[in-house]
Amino acid sequence: MKKIVTLAAGTLLFASPAFAQMADSDAGADAPTADASAASFTDAEIDTYAKVAVEISALQNDASLDAEARQSGAVAAVESSGLTAEKFNEISDASRNDPELAQRIQLAIANAQGGA
Questions:
Q1: If you write DSSP's letter for every residue of 6-45 in order, what string do you get?
Q2: Any idea where the DUF4168 domain is (predicted)?
Q3: Contacts of 89 (CB under 8 A, 6+ apart)
């Protein structure tokens, strides 16, 4: 099953605009909703999401990689993290409409990058 990676960078103001949301090619009717609140996600899920987001950002900023390599690397990063693509999408979608969740993600990314 082919997967596509894209993530809305607008939510993560400090992050690379090349982040991507992970989605199955058959997503659409089964796409996660953005109704989940910040409380719906555990700290461990947010920390894992942040680590994956940092990895994806590094891949997207690596000029030596072509688009296909970036794509496959991003898919591998999500798959190896223990998060499902659906959970990754759910967090991405919810963060667009939930400032508290977006802030939790920002702090987790700062920690994943060695800051804060």
A1: ---TTTSTTS-TT---EEETT-STTPPPTT--GGGS-HHH
A2: 71-105
A3: 21, 22, 23, 27, 31, 32
Q: Where are the domains of the chain?
A: 62-116
Neighbours of 28 (CB within 10 A): 8
Interval 16-63: pLDDT, tens: 333 433 433 334 434 444 455 666 899 999 999 999 999 999 999 999
Amino acid at residue number 32: P
The dihedrals phi and psi of 89, each to the nearest 5 degrees, come to: -65, -45
Average pLDDT over residues 90-108: 95
CA distance 10 to 59: 18
User: Nearest Cα to 69, choosing from 61, 87, 10, 89?
Assistant: 61
CA 94 to each of CA 34, 35, 51: distance values in angstroms, whole numbers, following the listed order: 4, 6, 18
The answer to whether the CB of 41 falls within 8 A of the CB of 94 is: yes
- Residue 112 pLDDT: 94
The pTM of this model reads 0.69
